[in-house]
Design a protein that fits this description.
alpha+beta; D-amino Acid Aminotransferase, Chain A, domain 1; D-amino Acid Aminotransferase, Chain A, domain 2; 2 domains; nine-stranded mixed sheet; eight-stranded antiparallel sheet; 9 helices; 29% strand; binds 2-OXO-4-methylpentanoic acid
Length: 365
Amino acid sequence: MSLSFALVPGTPTTSPAEIARRLGADPGFGIHFTDHMAVAHWQAGQDWQDDQLTAYAPFPLDPAVTVLHYGQEVFEGLKAYRHADDSIWLFRPEMNARRFQRSSYRLDLPPISETDFLAAVEALVRADAAWVPGAEEQSLYIRPFTFASEGVLGVHSARRVTFAVIASPSGAYFASGLNPVDIWVTTTYSRAGSGGTGAAKCGGNYASSLLAAKEAEAHNCEQVLFTDAATHHWVEELGGMNLFFVTDDGELLTPPTSGTILEGVTRDSILQLAPQFDLRPVERPVALDEVLTRLEAGTITEALACGTAAVITPIRAFRFEREGAEAEAVVPQAFGPATKALRQRLVDIQWGRAADDFGWMRRII
Ligand code: COI
């Protein structure tokens, strides 16, 4: 039976004037939360149940709850966009629903069906539509997640699990906005190994990226780039984003996801948009040495990071350690023409300013 996430009567709703006052001109990223959250529970041997749309509030958690000890958790990130005519749309939410199922499978959490995932997201966006910002580059960031909520210390898959969706009106992910970012290439830390959880969107991948992010910060970089765990020879992905290169012969190059890299929705969208800008999408292993040599030679002309939160972010330079010293490879065209064109087309589709040729947008209101 499908879930409906019916609104619990009597939950408080913030007035549009108060929302505007709280958010100000720039809501930042992931700081403010809307009035409601969708919640459902699961226990072994039963279907998902107790689905409701209730007031945004803390969860009562047993201190022994499995997620706090063993990290059995998965999450998603997608956005709702307010168009000029005040209609509200989601971008490819079924891609998130399907990835959520794959992530749940990998973490041995009960999957939530695509229909139920979409029902929860849509119920929340409908109830909290007043929180979807209308300003340039602002949207409602939606965060579905499932976590093990059984209070036992034995290491086994949880027999009680909670699914929830919360939402946060958000602006740019990076404080620097659209300024090209610097990337630190770490060979100290790894993000994912063969057979691991690299392709799953689970908290542990992000927790293990934090120390590497500190290393990046210490080198004045906004993001960290991970190479493959076995050899540190191949570039994989950033702390929370996929990576693309533009070459002087018209390739749009990215490493294949093949188990260790997150299958990004923005990544997939960029690959599909590429031919419209005379770019040939190429997914193949990319060696770090190739990147550095080609940046130097100017045959990689642009580099960009992408993800739902950060959209498309141009890269200025890669920094790395070589023979004990810090070195830098500068991207010839930071925020060059291909990056600009892809980003503009993507945001134009998302905000309803360009034709939705691929049928990516789903109207909610
Ligand atoms: C996203 O782009 O949605 C992400 O999940 C990245 C980060 C905010 C965790």
